[in-house]
């Protein structure tokens, strides 16, 4: 697995955690961090170039240091203690002032500061909203058992940062209104060109494409929900949309996926019924894939969608 993928996943989970506000769980972030730590995820850390040393950047301001090179990592003082700033990507680093950074494995960095009592932890992407990987959180992380997580977000699906965004399409796959129209507008014409080659999609099935101009995702999974008819068939087809989408996400190596409320707009599926069907379908898929760790975001464009999920979840308990 490429190292950039690991930090991208971490960056995406953090972004969605901010998006989720006060009620958001840290589990998706922990899933990404555990995966990263287990696979040598690298981060960027600001440092001072030691006097008399000539270091060559691999790109502007970014250095790869030889093992054993003595450097001073930047500290942000907090009274008698300090935190160490860390970036997940060059793009994150460039949001602020110019600064020399070195790439280092996060696990190695944690180790270096492990026994320094004056170090309160690591502040991730300190220029904007930021996340303190404190000593306490590092302890929680060690205890964390990676597992798939369903997170309900009060936000449109296009705002989530994920490997795959799910589109509530129609069987032509050639665009339409609602979220389908919004996704095609955001992705640009190339998405339509790819969709034209797919020969449509049956109700209850799903197909995958690139995300093109939608930079906060890598894939779009197009699924076609049922037009609500009040028959038993509706629930089977709606559940199938979620299951087929998750199958495709897994087959394409996605670690995160964001769903809109399939069929709950133009196709008229009542929100409370749809919430129960979708949660049950996802739960069934997860129990038949116990070893898969995927962060699943259920995105609520409208407030009443969020309320329907909350009711369904509270009845489940
Ligand atoms: N951004 C994010 N989410 C949205 C947006 C948006 N701009 N607009 C709607 N949603 P719908 P369906 C949410 O109607 O019921 C299209 O014309 C909405 O709140 O988009 O499956 C297709 O081409 C709801 O949660 O899809 C089909 O013909 C979810 O997206 C037909 O509509 C689905 O609502 C599919 O109908």
In short:
This protein has 317 residues and is α/β, with parallel strands linked by helices. The chain contains 10 helices and 14 strands.
Describe the 3D structure.
With 317 residues, the protein is an alpha/beta fold. The chain has two domains: 3-143, no CATH class; 149-316, Leucine Aminopeptidase, subunit E, domain 1, CATH 3.40.220. It has ten helices and 14 strands. It has helices at 3-20, 27-38, 90-93, 106-113, 135-143, 178-187, 189-196, 232-251, 271-287, 303-316, and strands at 42-48, 62-63, 72-73, 76-78, 81-86, 101-105, 119-124, 131-134, 149-153, 164-169, 206-210, 219-224, 256-259, 295-299. The strands form three sheets. Strands 9-14-13-10-12-11 form a six-stranded mixed β-sheet, sandwiched between helices. The chain has a four-stranded mixed β-sheet with strand order 2-6-1-3. A hairpin with an 8-residue loop joins strand 11 and strand 12 (219-224). The longest helix is centred in the C-terminal third of the chain and has 20 residues, at 232-251. It is elongated and about 75 Å long. It starts with a helix and ends with a helix. The structure holds ligand AR6. Residues 156-158, 168-170, 176-180, 182, 225, 260-267, 301-302, 305 line the site of ligand AR6.
Q: Average the pLDDT over all residues and give the rounded result.
A: 93
> Termini separation (Å)?
37 Å
Q: How large is the share of residues in beta strands?
A: 15-25%
> Can you write the helix and strand succession as a string?
HHEEEEEHEHEEHEEHHEEHEHEH
- Structure class: alpha/beta
Overall number of structural domains: 2
CATH level-4 homologous superfamily of the largest domain: Leucine Aminopeptidase, subunit E, domain 1
Shape: elongated
Which distinct ligands sit in these coordinates? ligand AR6
* CATH class assignment of the largest domain: Alpha Beta
